[in-house]
Amino acid sequence: MKVFKFGGASVKDANGVKNVVRVLEKTGFSDLIIVISAMGKTTNALEKVVELYLKNSSELKGAIHNVQQYHTIILETLFDNKQHVVFKKINRLFKDMETTLSRNKSTQYDYIYDQVVCYGELIATTIVSEYLNQQGYENKWLDARDFIKTDTTYRDAEVDWEITQRSIQKKVNTKGLSVTQGFIASDKNNFTTTLGREGSDYTAGIFAYCLNADSVSIWKDVPGVLNADPRVFSITHLLSHVSYEEAIELAFYGASVIHPKTIQPLQRKEIPLYVKSFLNPADEGTSVKKGQPLDPYLPCYIVKKDQILLSLSSLDFSFIVEDKISEIFSFFHQYHLKVDLIQSSAISFSVCLDDKFDHFDVLIMKLKAKFRVTYNKNVCLYTIRHFTEEAVRSLEQDKDILLKQITRETYQMVVKE
Ligand code: ASP
Question: Which end of the chain has fewer surrounding CB within 10 Å, N or C?
Answer without folding.
Answer: C
